[in-house]
Amino acid sequence: MTGKLLGLLGGMSWESTAHYYAQINRRVRDARGGLHSAPLLLHSIDFAPLAELQRQGDWAQAAVLLGEAGRGLAQAGAGALLICSNTMHKVAAPVAEMAGIPLLHIADPTIAALLAAKVGRVGLLGTRFTMEQAFYRERLQAAGLQVLLPTAAERDEVHRVIFDELCQGQVLPASRARYLDIIAALQAAGAQAVILGCTEIALLLDGCQAALPLLDTTALHSAAAADWLLQPDNAAR
């Protein structure tokens, strides 16, 4: 692994990026033993300006912001890129193009886990952008998955909790209970599992007994990142 570097675009929010860093390093340590850790480069974005671009729908400028950061990581020696956010995969393609290195897409290990579990109908929780815009759902649907969403009022609440609470380090029991109710409603609608399609949601539901199996995109993405580092050829898509 010596000399091979993975670039992380984090800070969206830093609360979940800290978990990325820990989980990638833990998996590499467990695989290699001793004092080994993961060779990483991290560019942590100031999330407030980026969140405002999201709110305004200025995804082109958001792509430039992340793309320039990704290019900096590539110039510093990163051989592949990780965007530590589900929502910002809306601009994954232009970011990868600007960076000039492969990008490990957050949805792909989740799709692999769903297909391995023979799940065909999956609920999706995330920011309003991830749930309502096509970029994420279409990647799931292209793999043959049927995607179920919460109601409009439930989507508003899921989004609010992410930005007003979880991204600011607040984990509230009332919000946890509300999320569990929403998951139960997705089960009633026919979902067989639920994607935690925002990297902060696992902070809220960690250790919870939910009505359905939960796919933690942060954990799955981190595992894929560590496995990429552990592969001799560092093959990325």
Give short descriptive properties of this protein.
alpha/beta, 237 residues, 11 helices, 7 strands, 14% strand, three-stranded parallel beta sheet, 53% helix
In short:
This protein has 237 residues and is α/β, with parallel strands linked by helices. The protein is built from eleven helices and seven strands.
Helix/strand/pairing class, anyone? Answer: alpha/beta
What is the general shape?
globular
- Gyration radius over CA: 17 Å
What is the helix/strand order?
A: EHEHHEHHEHHEHHEHEH
Q: Helix count, per DSSP?
A: 11
Low-confidence stretches: none
Q: Quick one: how many beta strands?
A: 7
Task: Give the mean pLDDT.
Answer: 94
Calculate the terminal CA-CA distance, rounded to whole Å: 19 Å
As laid out across the biggest beta sheet, the strand order is 5-4-6-7
- Strand content of the residues, in percent? 5-15%
Oligomer: single chain
Largest sheet: 4 strands, parallel
Report the helical percentage: 40-55%
Question: Can you put this structure into words, describing what you see?
Answer:
The chain has 237 residues and is an alpha/beta fold. It has helices at 14-32, 47-56, 59-75, 92-99, 107-116, 128-132, 134-142, 152-164, 173-188, 201-205, 217-230, and strands at residues 5-10, 40-44, 78-83, 121-125, 146-148, 193-196, 214-216. The strands form 2 sheets. Strands 5-4-6-7 form a 4-stranded parallel beta sheet, with helices on both faces. The longest helix is centred in the N-terminal third of the chain and has 19 residues, at 14-32. The two termini are 19 Å apart.
